[in-house]
Amino acid sequence: MKIILCAVALVVFGSEAMAADASLATDSEEDFIRDLESWESAKTDRANAVAGAIWTLRSGHFIFGMPRLTDDRHNFTPEGFDSEQAGISVVVREGFVVAHFDQMKSPLWVAQRWTKFDHARMLAEPSLDRPWREDLDLPLYTRGGTKYDGNDTHVDRGHMARHAKNRAWGADVSNWGVKMSNSTPQHRNINRLGGTWGDLEDKARDIVVSSSFDIEAVWVYSGAIYRDQNNPDAESPDEDFDEVVRLTMGGFGVPDATFKVIGWFDDSHNFQARAYVFEQPHESRIVSGEQRPNFSLPDPKLPAEDYLVKIDDLEARIGVDFFPMLKNIIEIIIESADNSDLWGAE
Description:
It is built from ten helices and 16 strands. It is globular. It has helices at about 30-40, 115-125, 150-155, 165, 170-175, 190, 195-205, 235-240, 310-320, 330-335, and strands at about 10-15, 70, 90, 95-100, 105-115, 155-160, 185, 215-225, 245, 250-255, 255-265, 270-280, 280-285, 290-295, 310, 320. Strands 1-3-4-5-8-11-12-15 form an eight-stranded antiparallel β-sheet. Strands 2-16 form a two-stranded antiparallel ribbon. It has a single domain, classed as 3-Layer(aba) Sandwich (Extracellular Endonuclease, Chain A), CATH 3.40.570.10. It is about 20% helix and about 25% strand.
């Protein structure tokens, strides 16, 4: 079933993963295109759509399957909340897909495929406004208004699917992109133009038309991290989550970092991927009886290579497997690599 919709599709799921068909896990571009066609023409097995089980969505915005939760940490329920409100809500738009971490009121990840065709459509469309709104397609309990109290907190509403790129699919997708489901509290020095986050977004946008590389498309996952990089692995994620600074009465969780995972096929038609983490460490301070983050921000304008991390390390930190249908041996090589370059040899 192909799920690329102008209207919204919403799925709430737990952490139990369905077994992947190993025969679909390929590593070449030719095999991937063939398998993608079979996935998109397949029907969803509704027998698997039971309470507590994960739905595997099929979308061109995913590469080697929809990212999967690797444990139950996202079922976290803070004191005073209903446990039925825990989990991830998946919202499908035409131009991107959001996995929304409901208790943090922020995306866990947002997926977006970007091609030469998308790039051309973006350039042909005018710039559009940013009328931020709540996402009424999310459950009521996961909405918190449209403001982060930015003047006091130094955080922006950071797009995960970039605003300029969303206009490639038209004004409706651009408007969906300025719903709060596509936003995470991001320090303004990271989010705004001139920083490395924006520079990396430019590179991932423009690589498909670069004469230096033969890259036809990229798959970009962007999202929030709610675990301190310095906490020991043995510490429970729930303990980290309990310490999250919440903004305003809306209760938006301030992440410890934001990330990007970028995948593509190189000029030898082999799959490649990189992960980047932008730390925004902070402590809680109280201003007029409300929580505010007190940041100790690293330099947000270093070369993009300085933000590279192993994909394995990022996945462990957030509890997500980004390429679940990639052959295991290829996945091990790609995700354990300690890369120092953005795109490979030029």
